[in-house]
Amino acid sequence: MSPEDLAWLVDGYRDGTISREDAGQLVAVIQAGGEESRRVLRELEFEGILAQALEESDDEGFLRSLNERIAAEQEESAFVRAFEVRRALVRRPRPRNWGLPAALAAGILLSLLLYFVMTAGPVGTSEKIAEQHQRPEPGEDPPAPPETPPAWSEEVRKTDPPGREVTPDLQAPPLRPEPPQISSSQAPVKKTEIPREETPSPAPAPPNETRTAFVTVSLLQGEVFRLDGASRTALVEGQGIPSGQGIECGPKSSATALLADGTRLELGSNTQVREMADRKGKRITLAKGILVAQVAKQPADAPMIFLTPHGEARVLGTAFRLEVDAQTRLEVTEGRVRLTRAGGKSADVAPGNVALCGPGLEPLARVAHPEEIVLLPRDARLVGDEWRIVPDRNASSGAALEVAKSPFKPIDHVDKRPSFAGFTFWASAEIEYRLWLRSSSLATGDRWTREMVTLEPQNCTLSARSPFFGALPTTAFVFTGLASWSGYAWSSGPFDEARPDSAPLLVRFKTTGMQTLRVFTDHPSIRIDEVWLSARQAVRPAAKFLPPPESR
Is 503 helix (H, G, I), strand (E, B) or coil? Predict the structure, then answer.
């Protein structure tokens, strides 16, 4: 196309006298690219509406820009009426005029012209134009798309940039249809719509999942209930528990709870977590039972706190075991936990250590799985009047347990004896201990009547049964031969002077935790210096040997 013809088309567009055929040629020049297209764009680049529209990256953006501008105008506005008047004028030659005022007005007219050509079909009356701008009444079905694609669809695809794909914006409103590309020989086309891709619906949540849950119960056995104040309802696996509620496991039941931050809580039988809440840090209230926790790392200013009737355990990220009955027992396997007694002192518990708190018991960290345990007279709790603590300069701690009187015989079952010296200590179920006794006899006459004492470690199994109790179900064992030496010496079980290095009595506790050992009188004039449970001392120690200080 010659420069003169191109200028003629631009002038006609500006004046609003351009015919439908010439308008199609001008649109074809603009969309064909090349030098002629760039020349027209340079001439019209300061035209507000057209420049904005042509800056879009694709046809869809071009059409959207025009439509947004046209939609801003009211139906039968002054722009539309002016266009109708100008469209009816007869085409006549005009001198070229590239003035800025005319160019600004022409930009608006060209946008209206392009919109009319792309959407209106054949040139018609003003009533048809108004009909194109009318929206369907509420409840009215939109026009159905044609069954076959329009004649211009293949030509439009050829002009698209290679590799471009039209993808609906899933976040935006539905797109308007792309405009047809007009050529001088093309028949009028109808408005159509590009089918939108179906947006996949989100997958339905599992039926038992609560997305607002503070904790989700992932594994459970037996009867497990959700606590909400005074109400109690049965739980099913995968059900969520909102903040402020709790969990209760019945007899022979257990459950595993997962918090949103990755913390894992394992609840044993007869365990009640009264409340689990998240208020500037997570709060877990353990009323009774056993809870094993693997706590994810917590913010420094919002630690996770486990509350019990006796105190609290404050953690920032660790693994531990918490048990509540008459006392609170804390065993730490990773990290560090601070155990604080209600209204009392606190103790920092390191990995491998354990601490207890409760009525009259301040927290004290100790080794969780000790290999050496020494029980001294000062640690004993005396029940009845058969035992007393006396000073003894030959004893390792300067004091000894001494029998005051002994009204019972060795064959009497310990369950019938109201008097004893009791020891409470922490021991591991994972270790097999040798039970050693450092003692002496004050016998002055028949030593065979001054050589026996009974030890009863509870909640355990022994490597041998004491012959004094026959088939009675008991873990009590009568230690003999205490009068075989002068002063203090070590023995285990029945001491035989002919075989002084016989194998010691072995003890294995059934659970890790606080253990109890009771000592009963059999003969008067017996003194006890130490009771030693050792994982390493396999042979009888020398008389003057003492266990390591850290085990005391």
Answer: coil
Query: Is CATH 3.65.10.10 what the domain over 372-551 is classified as, yes or no?
Result: no
What does the pLDDT read at residue 62?
A: 52
Alpha-carbon dihedral angle through residues 429, 434, 440, 441, given to the nearest 10 degrees: 80
Beta strands in 206-334 (DSSP E): 215-221, 224-228, 231-234, 240-241, 245-249, 254-259, 264-267, 271-278, 282-294, 304-308, 311-315, 319-324, 328-334
* pLDDT, tens digit (0-9, with 9 covering 90-100), for 465-510: 998 887 788 999 999 988 888 899 999 988 877 787 888 999 999 9
The full length of the chain comes to 552
Identical fold between 215-367 and 372-551: yes
Q: Which residue has the tokens 């500006």?
A: 14
Domain ranges within the chain, ordered by starting residue: 3-136+146-159, 215-367, 372-551
CB 29 within 8 A of CB 41: no
For 215-367, give the CATH class.
mainly beta
Count helices and strands in the chain by DSSP H and E runs = 9, 30
The backbone region for 289, taken as left when phi is positive above 0, alpha when psi lies in -120 to 50, beta otherwise, is: left
Output the pLDDT for position 32: 77
Three-state secondary structure call for residue 228 = strand
Task: Write the secondary structure of 24-45 as one string of H (helix), E (strand) and C (coil).
Answer: HHHHHHHHHCHHHHHHHHHHHC
Residues of the chain with pLDDT below 50 are 46-49, 51-53, 55-57, 73-77, 79-80, 83, 87-98, 100-101, 120-133, 146, 148-180, 182-193, 199, 201-211
The model's pLDDT over 48-73, given as tens digits with 9 standing for 90+, comes to: 445 444 544 455 555 565 555 555 54
Got the DSSP string for 112-149? Answer: HHHHHHHHS-S---HHHHHHHHPPPPTTPPPPPPPSS-
Backbone angles phi, psi at 347, to 5 degrees: -140, 135
